[in-house]
Design brief:
This protein is α+β, with helices and mostly antiparallel strands. The longest helix has 21 residues. Strand 12 and strand 13 form a beta hairpin. The protein folds into 2 domains: about 45 residues; about 230 residues, no CATH class. Helices cover about 15% and strands about 35% of the residues.
């Protein structure tokens, strides 16, 4: 019995000795971040990434409309884009982007092996109808939606996301995959992407994402957010973009968004394996104490 206690206590001690590491930087799949970043708010929100992106709508029958998290390494094709003013029920929002800041640090710092690029593709956000909102712009409701994040440590991303470099967005290793959760907007309408301001031509929107795979899956499978309507999610995404002409004016005939930028917020688990070991040790010790009694 004494040996069992000793083994359990040794395991717990080893787990506790790893605790200081939990408070330091976390490195997963080529990405490093500080979970104690001082600007993270609220406290359970210790991962904040800034993004730039380009997006467009495609017809329901186009090949890229059916892409999903299972289509690893595939980028939605800009050639399939339709005019934003022509997008309607069944058409799908797709695009790609880059994460250029994590917890206040750029690629030079968050790339474990610089140079690298942390990019993403997204799609599957199918228009199901229009909101009853009185917003002057059409405000679509959506179903579905997915995001794939990739880490390529062979080269940096060239410039900002635009229609000249989409192939760079899906190279390297899959870092994280996520699906969009359905939730309720301010009018109680179900959607997977909600326009907070504006609408289809220009505005800001949000989505709740749940991770389902990738190298960093175990670090972000937290269910830290509860969306309106009750769905739980691991990330809250917010972003804004506009469809404009060369003069910067809103244009229903525009096919691609400009100046897209956003923020991805979540909570991270520094070392899932160590936390499991620590928990298992405590449970085991409790069982042995009960038997000893």
């Amino acid at each position: 019995m004494r040996n069992i206690y000793k083994a359990l206590l040794t395991g717990i001690a080893l787990s506790c000795s790893a605790a200081p590491a939990l408070a330091g930087s976390v490195s997963v799949g080529g990405v490093t971040w500080d979970p104690d970043f001082s600007q993270a708010f609220p406290p359970l929100d210790d991962f904040t990434a800034q993004t730039k992106f380009a997006q467009w709508y495609v017809g329901a029958a186009t090949p890229t409309a059916g892409l999903g998290v299972g289509n690893i390494g595939v980028v939605p094709n800009p050639a399939d884009a339709i005019a934003v003013g022509a997008a309607g029920v069944g058409d799908v929002l797709v695009g790609y982007g880059i994460i250029d800041v994590i917890n206040g640090t750029g690629e030079v710092d968050f790339c474990t092996n610089y140079p690298c690029r942390l990019t993403y593709t997204f799609g599957g956000f199918a228009i199901t109808g229009l909101s009853a909102s009185l917003n002057p712009q059409p405000r679509p409701l959506f179903s579905g939606g997915w995001v794939n994040f990739y880490l390529d440590d062979t080269a940096p991303f060239v410039g900002n996301p635009n229609l000249t470099n989409p192939s760079e967005a899906a190279t390297g290793n899959l870092w994280l995959s996520a699906n969009a959760e359905s939730f309720l907007n301010d009018l109680g309408e179900a959607t997977t992407l909600n326009f907070l301001e504006g609408g289809i031509f220009t505005g800001s929107a949000e989505a709740f994402l749940s991770v389902i795979g990738g190298a960093a899956f175990g670090n972000f499978d937290t269910d830290v957010f509860t969306a309106p309507g009750g769905a739980v999610a691991d990330f809250l995404y917010s972003g804004n973009a506009s469809f404009t002409n060369a003069s910067g004016q809103l244009d229903p005939t525009a096919m691609y968004s400009t100046n897209g930028n956003g923020q991805l917020r979540g909570d991270s688990i520094p070392e899932p394996g160590i936390l499991f070991l620590f928990g298992a040790g405590l449970v085991g010790l409790g069982v042995m104490r009960k038997k000893a009694a």
